[in-house]
Write a structure and sequence with these properties.
Pfam family, one: Glu_cyclase_2
Number of domains: 2
Organism: Lishizhenia tianjinensis
InterPro entries: QCT (IPR007788), Quino_amine_DH_bsu (IPR011044), WD40/YVTN_repeat-like_dom_sf (IPR015943)
CATH topology of the largest domain: Neuraminidase
CATH class of the largest domain: Mainly Beta
Radius of gyration: 30 Å
Distance between the termini: 82 Å
Number of helices: 2
Strand order of the largest sheet: 22-23-24-25-9-28-27-26
Shape: elongated
Keywords: Transferase
Helix content: under 10%
Number of strands: 28
Order of helices and strands: HEEEEEEEEEEEEEEEEEEEEEEEEEHEEE
Strand content: over 45%
GO molecular function, one term: glutaminyl-peptide cyclotransferase activity
Largest sheet: 8 strands, mixed
CATH superfamily of the largest domain: TolB, C-terminal domain
Length: about 350
Amino acid sequence: MKILKPILAFLTVGLFFVGCENDKASKSEYRPLFEAKFKSPNNNVYYNAGMPIPVQLEFDSTKIERFTLWLNDSVIAQTNFGGRVFEKVVQSKSLAFGSYQFRLEAKLKEGKLVKDTRNIRVLSKTEPERWEAVVEKAMPHNTTSYTQGLEFYKGELYEGTGQYGRSKLLKVLKEKGSTLKEVSLDNQYFGEGITILEDKIYQLTWKAKTCFVYDVNTFEEIKRLAYPTEGWGLCNNGEQIIMSDGSHKIYFRNPETFAVEREIEVYTNRGPVGNLNELEYINGKIYANVYTSNRLVVIDPNTGNVESVIDCDLLALDHRGSGEVLNGIAYNPVSQKVYLTGKEWPELLEVSFKK
């Protein structure tokens, strides 16, 4: 022990001087292990609309010449910069709901380009209202109809059905559930949502990326339109065809070319709402089935904000029979009444919504 004590004392003094030298070196020269990077925001963070988004960049000031900062495709900062830290606050209140990417590109004095990215999402700041669907009247519905689309046009009810080898476009007598007119799709097509605009019926297909367009009076095919995603639900706002593809996105398409004119992402205050299926446009709002659930969501078509969630659990329990999931929303502008059904359900239901 007597021998060890002097050795330990010597080592302690040595470490002290080494530590002091390291401190002097660290104070005299800042040596980062990076050239340019984000310090904030963190990746994949959610911000409720209205919250400020602090952006902080860090640089090796001895190497950086200039940098550019993008938010999606827009440049939000660009400058020659010789400092270590750059800060900027982005106001989320000016952003639509959805996904965004911050992208940093920094040019070094040696000519090298350094990149870094951060992904964020902007959500609604308001909790959706909670409504309940109440059945006012039940009418027969064909249990062989795997309902994918449901819509009134000039007071008459039309239905699109699915399944390979069973997909059809139907004109239906609402009170009896009987078929007044029909056309079958070829066996290779799985029918999906329908909508009717200016005497033309549009019918999606699930995976064939084909939309059939028919004359509403004769059911004769007029043309076919292409799209790159799966096809799920359709409705229209009187000017554009509105389409879902099973994600949390909704597309507004030109009725002649089917080109996307704009799109929205659908969010509550907690996150995106996916599996958007059959659609209906009612008094300026989009009503959507959420696939595999017994609920509807009411969507602001301008922002993607979910304003209300409609609980249909009791409705499905009492009226589904041996059918599958809830799917099919139709609004009759003539009577101003809403109707719901599901895939192979025995009933078409006139409903009201109670808060």
